[in-house]
Specification:
- The chain is about 55% helix and about 5% strand.
- The protein has two domains: about 120 residues, Rossmann fold, CATH 3.40.50.2300; about 170 residues, Hypothetical protein af1432, CATH 1.10.3210.
- Strand 4, helix 4 and strand 5 form a beta-alpha-beta unit.
- The longest helix is centred in the middle third of the chain and has 36 residues.
- It is of the alpha/beta class.
């Protein structure tokens, strides 16, 4: 196992004082850590962009960009968000510490740095990063599995990526919280992962499904929820997976939920899912135009299936930014 905490890690030491850089680097390399250095905030960000860094030790008062600014930049980018950041400071003001917390700092060290305290904090944060890396690897496996299921049907090629993009765009338009947008991006990829339990001849069948085949198909949201449930980071994704085939009148599956009992995130994914299905050619019909797709959805909304307000928002989203949906878009049963 790649054990970061025991020394197999790269630590960025960023400080405009060469003596401080040398001191921290000497302590860390003696423990087996790889050290990369930066003499100011701008150089530190360049290192973060270009090299693998497992933990960053940032002096607060640096030229170019302060440690606060570098920390905020690291924590603002999805690809570097989980890099632990320790701010090293001689400042004693509580306001400075509050600013560091607001920038996303994981820990603080006061100057002059105590060797044992430094190593203890580094080990602790690297252990946490190791768990985070394992979680990201688990997510990557789920995403790969979901995409392999999608690849079985040539008519749904690119569906997962599109659905992630569309549902997040619609969620932003609705002013939904950031964590729900993240959940929708993930759910766009894995929402149908439960279809791994559906025989391939049912998935790619060109005609209507028999009653027995539909019974099997309707199990896939529950199966998908079960597959993803061990990941705590998918807490907000699970209701989307389970409920994206519910209908407002209670005629959907698997639980027959009605109205607002269906989570909004599930309804957002659902409405983009339906639109994507209609404007993409399938084995059993051709693609509909944008206008015909919206008209079809409104007709089904009159039957009590879908949320008309969400259809309105989707239509306005496409009108305002047609590149978001491409208007050459897809989904499935």
């Amino acid at each position: 196992m790649f054990n970061l905490a025991s020394g197999n890690a790269t630590v960025l030491v960023a400080d405009d004082n060469e003596v401080n850089r040398d001191l921290l680097s000497e302590i860390l390399t003696a423990e087996g850590y790889k050290v990369t250095r930066a003499a100011d905030g701008i150089e530190a960000l360049k290192v973060i962009r270009e090299k693998r860094v497992d933990l960053a030790l940032l002096d607060v008062m640096m030229p170019g960009k302060t440690g606060f600014e570098v920390c905020f930049s690291i924590k603002s980018r999805p690809e570097t968000l989980f890099i632990p950041v320790v701010l090293v400071t001689g400042l004693k003001s509580i306001n400075e510490r509050i600013e560091g917390i607001q920038c996303g700092a994981d820990d603080f060290l006061s100057k002059p740095v105590n060797k044992q305290e430094l190593l203890a904090r580094v080990r602790s944060l690297l252990r946490l990063k190791e768990y985070t890396d394992e979680l990201e690897n688990a997510e990557a496996v789920l995403f790969s599995l979901a995409l392999s299921i999608e690849a079985k049907d040539p008519y749904t090629k690119g569906h997962c990526d599109r659905l992630s993009e569309y549902s997040v765009a619609l969620a932003h338009r609705l002013g939904m919280p950031h964590e729900q947008c993240v959940a929708l991006r993930r759910a766009g990829v894995v929402h149908d992962i439960g279809k791994i339990g559906v025989p391939e001849h049912i998935l790619v069948k060109k005609g209507p499904l028999s009653a027995e085949e539909w019974k099997i198909m309707k199990e896939h949201p529950v199966t998908g929820e079960r597959i993803c449930s061990p990941l705590k980071s998918f807490r907000l994704v699970l209701p989307i997976i389970r409920h994206h085939h519910e209908k407002l009148d209670g005629s959907g599956y698997p639980d027959g939920l009605t109205g607002d009992n269906i989570p909004l995130t599930a309804r957002v994914l659902q409405i983009t899912d339906i639109y994507d299905a209609l404007i993409t050619a399938r084995s059993y019909r051709g693609a509909l135009s944008h206008e015909n797709a919206i008209a079809t959805m409104r007709g089904e909304a009159k039957c009590g299936w879908w949320d008309n307000a969400l259809i309105d928002e989707l239509e306005e989203l496409v009108a305002a930014a047609p590149y978001v949906t491409g208007t050459e878009v897809a989904v499935g049963r």
